[in-house]
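It is worth pausing here to work through a concrete case rather than discussing structure prediction in the abstract. The textbook approach is simple: state the sequence, then state the predicted structure, then interpret. We follow exactly that order.
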Amino acid sequence: MVLKGDSCLLNGRKPLFMPEWTEELGVTECVILRVSRLGKEIAPKFANRYYDAVAPGADFIALDLAREAQTAGRPWTEALAFDYSLAIGEWINHDGMSAAELLNDELILSPEEAVARASKVMTIRQGDLIYIQRHQAPRPVHKEEIIRIEIDGEEKLYCKIK
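Step two, the predicted structure:
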């Protein structure tokens, strides 16, 4: 589990300025759940009651720092939780839609498992975000690249790398 502060959020089609302290930036697509009510130790069968919207996301990682941290046996926090490291697309009301269906791909955890696991170690509150990565390795991104995610033919996430 990775905790990210609110300075990590990149909203509203704003560009991501490549950090000067990394030589290799990567991205993984993810699904983000917006928590809609207070909860602690939520059973997976009730978890869908605790989020009201889903959004596509782009989770950025400093790949070179992650390798260094892994080699040294240190936490990956500096590689994962930096300013604007999580781009959030347009919110889609939950309305029974499965978050896994959002990206038409398998996630590393189901939304129900993610809510249950997060609420086991901390109290989740309205407005908190839980993000779930896809089964894929991060891919490198470069300046001037555009990250786009479309759902049902509509662009739901746009982020230009500068």
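Step three, interpretation. Strands lie at 9-10, 25-35, 51-62, 86-88, 92-93, 129-133, 139-140, 146-151, 154-160. The longest strand covers residues 51-62.
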